[in-house]
């Protein structure tokens, strides 16, 4: 930390997870950071009724620093994009990690099927998520098991409400992406089956001046699988951004 003038990094996690997923990235960043629980997750009360992307963003805004380098992962990336678009004064730079963008019909059908599964067979949803996120990686089993426990601890109704925002939120923010004006980095793993490299390229193409990065060998849980690589990319992006040079 370089004193009170340093703009902190604010980190938003994905659906069914919580702020603790960011611990390896926070350790590697070497700068002031804060990880925030999304509504219905972690230390926040469960969601008892349907919620919109705007409502999630408004809730997060009450707990964000006055201004931050905003980093969102998966569902958190959609929330971060909404904040960057409609509250630009709160965001110095935006980093979207493993973000969906402009889903094709096949991709919409796939996420709708996962939403339906969450509503009818939550344990199967947990195992399917673990498989999509970690299959074939070298992430230690203890870390995989910790992620599974976090998912299993969710209130099922709350999870479904949040997952619905993840399933449809890209339709809400998609037409607004061209109006995001701060520096933007879109980054994902080469082997992410849900938030694909193509989605990251779509996101970078939709936001003026945004850059896309694809991390070789990584799957969806990039902040866990390759925390050092992600932290380095975030740090380099922040340092390269116009505002950080002051």
How would you describe the overall organization of this protein?
The chain is globular, with a radius of gyration of 16 Å. The protein has helices at residues 23-29, 53-61, 75-86, 105-120, 122-134, 141-152, 156-173, 197-206, 222-225, 227-240, and strands spanning 9-12, 33-36, 68-73, 91-97, 184-189, 211-215. Helix 2 crosses helix 3 (75-86), helix 3 packs across helix 7 and helix 4 packs across helix 5. It starts with 8 loop residues before the first strand and ends in a 6-residue tail after the last helix. By secondary structure, it is of the alpha/beta class. Helix 8 links the parallel strand 5 and strand 6.
Topology:
Blueprint: E1 9-12, H1 23-29, E2 33-36, H2 53-61, E3 68-73, H3 75-86, E4 91-97, H4 105-120, H5 122-134, H6 141-152, H7 156-173, E5 184-189, H8 197-206, E6 211-215, H9 222-225, H10 227-240
Parallel strand pairs: 1-2, 1-3, 3-4, 4-5, 5-6
Helix pairs in contact: 1-10, 2-3, 3-7, 4-5, 4-7, 5-6
